[in-house]
Amino acid sequence: MVKELQLVACPLVTKSLDEWGIYVGIPCKYKKERSKKLLELEKKYNKQYGE
Questions:
Q1: Residue pair 26/11 in contact by the 8 Å Cβ criterion
Q2: Bridge partners for 32 per DSSP
Q3: N or C: the chain end with fewer CB closer than 10 Å?
Q4: Contact 26, 12 (CB under 8 A)
Q5: 3-30: pLDDT as tens digits
Q6: Helix/strand/coil (H, E, C) string of 27-45?
Q7: Is 17:2 a contact under the CB 8 Å cutoff?
C-alpha cells in the first residue's frame, strides 16, 4: 500500500508506483522523489497540539 504519492495533471496509471514519488504525464512517468519534510512537520505539530 502506498502511503504518500503525488500525481500531477491527471496521469494515466498503468502499473504500481513507488512511495514518495512524483509522477506526471500519460502514461504516468516518475519525475522525482517528494520531500519527507512533511513527516517532520506532522510530528512537531502532534507533539505541540496532541493527536
A1: yes
A2: 22
A3: N
A4: yes
A5: 666 666 666 777 788 888 888 878 888 8
A6: CCEEEEECCCHHHHHHHHH
A7: yes
Torsion over CA of 2, 39, 7 and 29, rounded to 10 degrees? Answer: -80
pTM value surpassing 0.70 = no
C-alpha span between 17 and 49 (Å, rounded): 33
Longest Cα–Cα distance in the chain:
42
Helix (H, G, I), strand (E, B) or coil at 48: helix
C-alpha cell at 50: 496532541
C-alpha cell at 24: 506526471
Say how far residue 23 (Cα) sits from the centre of its chain.
9
